[in-house]
Amino acid sequence: MKQLSSGEIRQMFLDFFKSKGHAIEPSASLIPVDDPTLLWINSGVATLKKYFDGTVVPKNPRITNAQKSIRTNDIENVGKTARHLTFFEMLGNFSVGDYFKKEVIPWAWEFLTSDQWLGLDKDKLYVTVYPKDQDAKAIWEQTGVPASHIFEVEDNFWDIGEGPSGPDTEIFYDRGQSFSDLPEDDPENYPGGENERYEEIWNIVFSQYNHLPDGRYVDQPHKNIDTGMGLERLVSVIQGTKTNFETDLFMPIIKATEKMSAGHVYGEDKQADVAFKIIADHARTVTFAIGDGALPSNEGRGYVLRRLIRRAAVNGSRLGIQGAFLYKLVPVVGEIMASYYPEINRNQDFIEKVIHSEEDRFQETLNAGMALLSQTITELKAKGETEIPGATAFKLFDTFGFPVELTKEIAGDQGVDVDMKGYEQNMQAQRERARAARGDAQSMGSQDKTLMAIKTPSKFTGWTDLADQATLMDLLQDDTEKERVEAGTAQLIFDQTPFYAEMGGQVADHGTILDDNGTVVAKVVDVQHAPNGQNLHTVEVENTLKKGATYTLQVDTDRRRKVSMNHTATHLLDQALRQVLGEHTHQAGSLVEPTYLRFDFTNFGQVTPEQLRQVEQVVNEQIWRQLPITWREMPIEEAKKQGAIAMFGDKYGDTVRVVTIGDFNREFDGGTHPTNTAALGLFKITGESGIGAGIRRIEAVTSQEAYEYLTQQQDELAQAANTLKIDQVANVPAKVEQLQAELKASQKTVEGLQAKLAAQEAAGIFDHSEQAGAHTLIAKAVKVAGMNELRQLADQWRTKQASDVLVLATANDGKVSLLVAASEAANQAGIKAGALIKAIAPAIGGGGGGRPDLAQAGGKNPAGIADALAQAKQVLAQA
Predict the structure, then answer these.
(1) pLDDT at position 803 over 60
(2) Contacts of 695 by beta carbon, 8 Å cutoff, 6+ apart
(3) Is-contact 149 121, C-beta < 8 A?
(4) Which residues contact 502 (CB under 8 A, 6 or more apart)?
(5) Domain-by-domain residue ranges, the chain?
(6) Which residues form the Alanyl-transfer RNA synthetases family profile domain (predicted)?
(7) Residues 6+ apart with CB under 8 A from 319
(8) 844 near 809, Cβ under 8 Å?
(9) DSSP structure string for 106-157
(10) How far apart (Å, rounded) are the C-alpha atoms in residues 697 and 331?
(11) Per-residue CA distances from 241 to 11, 202, 235, 270 (Å)
């Protein structure tokens, strides 16, 4: 077998399919663009949906790629099996209505077995096919695969519910008897069965049907090929390793981790090996995910990152690594992947900063988790019990990042088991919640046969003209080609048009369509791109439209002017954010409307008011400099050499349009702009907020809307001055500071009076305690302002050592505050304030908790105070 590196294998795959006429698509961002059905890009085809569902017809129907991907449905299995990974690369070749089975099967065999390419041993390759797909079976045999190496498997049918579907064929490599984990006669001991011997390396899907909502399968207008080959598995086969982790994709990370561990060496201890694998996998995942703009948080993909970093940290501690360490593996990952993913090294400092910060933050959580586990074990032993509840084990896993195996290991050292059945029930409930949250959104739409068939050329003239004569080439209504339409909503394609189609966040042009007499025959309410790239006008028909007739197309010039100004503002804002916040900042989306703009961007942490003011200043300076705005089309490589900024996550053709704003900004862009920044007049940020994990949003206005916004603020400030009875608005801040100081002084006076009232209330309540079983108790309802005053009373009680246990309650405005305090002696005797308050809080219609020595609760039933105090005495009497 050839000795090949992972980089050589990846490039060889792309070169092979390039030789078969395929266009190489670069790997897209792991963060899906305009696809709410996916948390992460999880396959090669996920980035090509627009081609397969017919939304866009590609320039070349033959496509190949090496796509970075993340799948997180089996995180807990990573490190325990030879194959489970969260981050992986999927090699794929795709046909969009071009070649099919008779081409793709021989190509797959050629790539795998030809000496010019991988040169694998033919005798070690096996394939599976769908039983009803005898065509595929026959083609495999014609290609040279013996019938004894072809297996019919019922599961070989790819189906996601509604949408594209079809049979598939899978290719397996026989790794030899030494890898067998099953008896020879085991029914799963065959290619396609659940075993370790036969490694699946390639899956080819024949996407030929459309699965309809009523359950029927019908032929797709275009039959497609969708293949996937996991790079890590293929590298493992070629490099002859036992698992994915001994390959050149992982071993440098494992070796670097060894040096930081407490003397552990990979391959010498099974438990340590699991930790090494988890760390290596998770280091790759978080490095690439953060590099693509994801940031740790408590929801969505940010939660996945947080969980992975914490899981790596826990396993680092199992290897004896002290403190933060995962961030130190970022340059190792970058070096391994540098040949195809140089962006990791470019963003190394930022990625390290994010991971290091998250690791430091987790140390406190890790300690809290260990404390909870220790406390749980202690309480179980005190009760004579020997099993940690499943809910507690799941909380340790879900909240603190503890793998259940670690919980079992620590508990086992103390002679305690874990309720795994209860743990699995909690885990299953979480999976069901996640599944429900994803909803029923289709992962791929159905092809629109009518629109896909329209290939009429159409030219956009709107860069220079906002009115134009054009011939109506295609007229559709209700997804049907028409010769004429007299009313209702219709879709139109002209031979040329000045109407801009929505793209890149810029909304579509609106306007009118007029006949030869100057009569308005339709109003344009939307423009989108048809599958073959034409501008597709959605119109409300007012008079008869005829296919083949000539019309005047008139864009709403005022709307276009305002939209164009706001689009330019997004370019200025994008560049200003990079200058102020750093080059790690990426555009994550935008919306350009006539009256405002919205700009989403990645940033680690909140943007301060000072930074926002600085960004605003930078943008306005470029407006006041009156910079010229120019644009021209050029080869993409030339644009890159000129330093043009590409939209993060977007893909581009060989020729791109580059918009240049003076010496300040140069970007790939397909939108409209004025010819000079002076046209914007003024730029004003109206809001900044967080909208997701590591994603911030700025809303802003320009020109007339900016003036109106500032005028409104001036009016509101004048109103405030009038209310405060001052002459000059400039004096409003000083007056507000004065009022705040007076309010603060008044609050201190109130607090002092409340403390005196609490002291008066305390006079006498600590003089007499009552006996409750073996303990002394003071249980009283008092008249104070709230919980702060109850805590002050508890401090006095503790100083006086008036009783073993104190229970106090107060009611104000229908709300009850309840407090329980326990002395040190009571704690030693097993009385816990937190447990006692949980027992009595239901009487006041509430709940609470706290420490063993002090706990508090709130409720909405003042009538239950007497019952709560009486129950406290009963609980103590029985303790």
Answers:
(1) yes
(2) 588, 600, 601, 602, 603
(3) no
(4) 508, 526, 527, 528
(5) 6-242, 300-438, 456-555, 560-712, 765-878
(6) 4-712
(7) 257, 260, 261, 262, 264, 272, 275, 276, 279
(8) yes
(9) HHHHHHHH-TTTT---GGGEEEEE-TT-HHHHHHHHHHT--GGGEEE-TT-E
(10) 31
(11) 21, 18, 9, 17
Which tokens sit at 754? 């409340």
Please give the Cα distance from 761 to 780 (Å, whole number).
Answer: 11
Residue 329 half-sphere exposure, CB side, CA atoms within 13 Å?
34
**pLDDT score of 438:** 46
pLDDT in tens, 838-867: 999 999 998 888 889 999 999 999 999 999
CATH of domain 456-555: 2.40.30.130
d(CA 849, CA 836): 9
pLDDT tens readout for residues 504-523: 889 999 999 999 999 999 99
Could you count the other beta carbons within 10 Å of the beta carbon of residue 436? 9
Contact 255, 34 (CB under 8 A): no
178, two tokens: 């030494």
pLDDT (tens digit per residue) in 153-208:
999 998 866 677 899 999 999 998 888 878 888 888 888 888 888 999 999 999 98
Residues 693 and 562: their CA atoms lie apart, in Å, by 31
CB atoms within 10 A of CB 843: 23
Superfamily of 6-242 according to CATH: Bira Bifunctional Protein; Domain 2 (3.30.930.10)
Which pLDDT score, from 0 to 100, does residue 826 have? 94
Sign of the CA dihedral running 212, 215, 219, 223: positive
Overall CATH class of domain 765-878: alpha beta
Using alpha carbons, select from 439, 440, 478, 444 the residue that is nearest to residue 164: 444
Give pLDDT, residue 117: 96
CA distances from 569 to 610, 620, 674 (A): 20, 9, 11
- CA dist 524 and 461 (Å) reads 16
H or E stretch covering 723: helix 703-723
CA 196 to CA 82: how far, in whole Å?
8
**Structure token pair of residue 838:** 């949980």
DSSP summary character for residue 502: P
Tell me if 366 sits within 8 A of 309, measured CB to CB: no
Q: How far from 23 is each of 52, 63, 65, 92, 655, CA to CA, in Å?
A: 15, 5, 8, 12, 14
Instruction: Give the tens place of pLDDT for each residue, 63-76.
Output: 999 999 999 877 87
Tell me the C-alpha distance between 732 and 730, whole Å: 6
pLDDT at 261 over 90: yes
Three-class SS state of 295: coil
407, two tokens: 């919980």
3-state SS assignment for residue 648: coil
Burial 109-127 (b: 16+ CB within 10 A, else e): bebbbeeebbebeeebbbb
Q: What is the largest CA-CA distance in the chain?
A: 103
Here the tokens at position 572 are 């200025």
Q: b or e along 334-353 (b: 16 or more beta carbons within 10 Å of the residue's beta carbon)?
A: bebbeebbebbbebbebbbb
Cα gap 141→150, rounded to integer Å: 8
User: The tokens of 879 are what?
Assistant: 């303790």
- For the record, the structure tokens of 128 come out as 């599976």
Nearest to 42 by CA among 285, 272, 275, 287: 285
pLDDT in tens, 660-694: 999 999 998 889 999 999 999 999 999 998 876 67
* Sheet with strand 655-661: strands edge to edge: 629-635, 655-661, 665-668
Class of domain 560-712: alpha beta
Query: Would you state the structure tokens that stand for residue 33, as one six-digit string?
Result: 């663009």
